[in-house]
Please model this.
Amino acid sequence: MEHITLGKFSRQLINFLLQEASALPDISSQVDFLSKQFVGIPYKESTLIGDANTGEVLVINFAGVDCFTFLDYIEALRVSKSFSAFKENLVKVRYHSGEITFEKRNHFFTDWKEFNSELIDDVTEAIAEGNTVKITKNLNEKNDRSHFLPGVPCREREITYIPSSVIDERISGMLQTGDYVGIYSERKGLDVSHVGILIRNNDALFIRHASSMHGKVVDEDFQKYISDNPGIIVMRPKA
Model:
């Protein structure tokens, strides 16, 4: 079962954009090009359909995205050359084991490292070697031992992040256009509080993200944005 809403797009336009993206010289420019098409798209949360008690539905909603679905769509688009291939790749990106169920959905950003290692690398340590923090968390478990996501098992996971306080010019210079960045969360049971895509424009670095504050997908100055947050986790798409 599928639920498809394309908003300003059409299947023909998506096929055209994918052909245009495939002609670009590298992953960075492909991710930049594809994600730029979503700038201005409204922020909309809870677009995915399903929970532990109901059947999961494959949702494609280009008319409104939250920060996670925005990344899902861009990563699936960048490895696709047609709309039909995009649908297949979205299942691989959004769910592990290729099963469209709530339990198998990649609910956490670091699930990408765990289950999508053929598509992305966690480059957090490589970018800031010697300046990272490692912490083990039981993802999905709240302070009172209840779950953020009922029906989803808790997972013990070591998380590596770069504290905002150490992100200097050298570390910023290691970040690339097209990197997927997670904003580290200090809350028990969560790995990140938000995600976006890094975009470098000459000497300026931006985070392109679906912002609830702005109500749409926007580009914001990365250094200013991260200064009010604990740190970052960085995933880099593979060729």
